[in-house]
From TrEMBL:
This is Chromo domain-containing protein. It holds the Pfam family Chromo. Residues 80-142 form the Chromo domain. Transmembrane segments: none annotated. It comes from Phytophthora nicotianae P1976. Gene3D superfamilies: 2.40.50.40.
Length: 148
């Protein structure tokens, strides 16, 4: 079991370091053996130069470098754009016991919605917004039921 992350304050000797534990809720002896440390992130090519911020020289990245429609991805053949997601249902279980979900999807340019497996959808933002809205509604309904 790992605790932390902590900064190494200083090296005590060849095999021990002192950790910065002040301001944390951990109650542990601050000197630990180096074999008990685990690197959180490694930055092999960390920059050593300092960036300065000059508002006069600042250019908005979108305005200065990107064309107007560069963020719109071209649809490939046999790929359709999702207009909105209306509903969700549980479908069959995988062989590992995970329940797959299907979403009722309205497609741009088409009238009829269709049920689509979650793995076949490529609209992460719409999925996140739909799931968040569902969760928020469920929480609100739960709060209302407790008031009654």
């Amino acid at each position: 079991m790992w605790h932390g992350p902590f900064r190494v304050a200083k090296t005590v000797d060849r095999h021990a370091v002192r950790l910065e534990t002040a301001g944390t809720e951990y109650r542990l002896f601050p000197i630990v053996h180096v074999s008990k440390l685990k690197l959180v992130k490694s930055y092999p090519e960390r920059s050593t130069s300092t960036l300065t911020n000059h508002d006069a020289d600042r250019v908005d990245f979108d305005e200065g470098l990107l064309p107007e429609d560069s963020w719109e991805r071209e649809l490939e053949e046999e790929e359709y754009e999702v207009e909105r997601i209306a509903d969700v249902r549980s479908s069959k279980k995988t062989r590992y016991g995970r329940t797959r979900r299907e979403y009722l999807v309205f497609w741009k340019g088409y009238d009829e919605p269709s049920w689509v497996d979650e793995l076949d959808l490529n609209c992460g933002a719409l999925l996140r917004d739909f799931d968040r809205g569902r969760t928020d509604r469920n929480r609100f309904e739960a709060m209302q039921s407790h008031e009654e």
